[in-house]
Amino acid sequence: MDRQEINRKQKQFIFPAVATYFRDPLPLERGEMQYIWDVEGKRYLDFFGGIVTVGVGHANPRVTGPMKAQIDKLQHTSTLYPNETAVALAEKIAQITPGRLEKSFFTSSGSEANETAIDTARQHTGNLEILALRHAYSGRSSMTRALTGISSWRKVSYQIGIVHAMNPYCYRCPLGKTYPSCDVACAQDIEAVIQSSTSGSIAGMIAEPIQGVGGFITPPKEYFKLAFNIVKQYGGDFIADEVQTGWGRTGKTWFGIEHWEVEPDILTAAKSLANGHPIGLTVATPEVADAYKGPTIATFGGNPVTCVAAKAVIDLIEEDDLRTNCAVVGAYLRERLLELQQKYPIIGDVRGMGLMQALELVKDPKTKEPAPEATAALLEAARENGLLIGKGGMYNNVLRLSPPMNIAKSDVDEAFRLLDKTFATVTANLHHTA
Ligand code: PMP
Predict the structure, then answer these.
(1) Is 136 touching ligand 1 by the criterion CB < 6 Å?
(2) Which listed CATH number (3.40.50.300, 3.90.1150.10, 3.40.980.10, 3.30.420.40) goes with 3-60+321-433?
(3) Is the shortest distance between the CB of 49 and ligand 1 below 6 Å?
(4) Does 113 contact ligand 1 (Cβ within 6 A)?
């Protein structure tokens, strides 16, 4: 099928609510490491990786090789039957996750992983209420939509027992303060919300160490320690949603939350864990996991092909020291983005950690008025120029960069050249139409 036919059938046979990027959606056909090709054979440098998903490159043979062998051996068991691939993966996860996280429950998506985490915290603590953060994205199931703190992703949301606190968004501080003189006052909002909007005892708090869909909002270093202590004071479990930040992407550590020395009671992951193959992970400390009331089952949970892929991904990250690569190449990417900011005043903020970096775009760096139209135009122009990047943020004015974790500095140089070209054309057009 050609591009027009795929897009026509997409319109006719797929739910229209399913979001697609670009005015003219982009049907993709084939990928190889940091590159992806559309159905017309045009090549793109992929600096979004699905949605922060293809952590070790498209069709990486060190992942697809073991998967192919497993497909011919055994493809499916369900969680009813233990299998070596699932327990080997769970053992590895227990070794590399922070603190006493030890017991895993495998499902098929980040939404399911977070659903499982919330159920687990509620059963473990005997409490109902969950605290989430504004600008969070937690998934597309009923409960995870309600945990989400961005209205556009919360359509038809009926859950009770979920409250939202301010997020640590320093560029647009919800309290109008400036770090560090603010004393991280936003963390105190967690306590204020618990005291005002819950029964006074909570089941837990769920938070992304760096908010992904929210626009790579990166907290000040004290924030999560303070948040964790408040959660504990009110009887809750702390859940780190590492769906975007996990497996080394933020540099140096395996998980985002480790940068701030917080040991979560529950951690969730998905996306890049199996390099794009469907997986959801909920891992908890033994006493928290043991509190989950069974029996329960996940038909696709612990699927042998997926588990082999995930194990191969973790082994590869370890063998190639990709955590260090994310720190080193991520710092270089950051440098080049700051260079771009010097050149284009539309870039109000550069933020993120490791190979998870974002640009927040504003009409005026002083007023910080969001620039969603320019952001959309930049996304389109980057595609034209052969670079795929992501978009996000409450105001649709953030460009997100999350390339595979095994890229080199030369890939950053290529992305920089394409971004520079993109910004030059789009900002020149903006001035013309202004
Ligand atoms: N948590 C976070 C932080 C996410 O970014 C996402 C997906 N964007 C999810 C959960 C939900 O994952 P999935 O789409 O696999 O259900």
Answers:
(1) no
(2) 3.90.1150.10
(3) no
(4) no
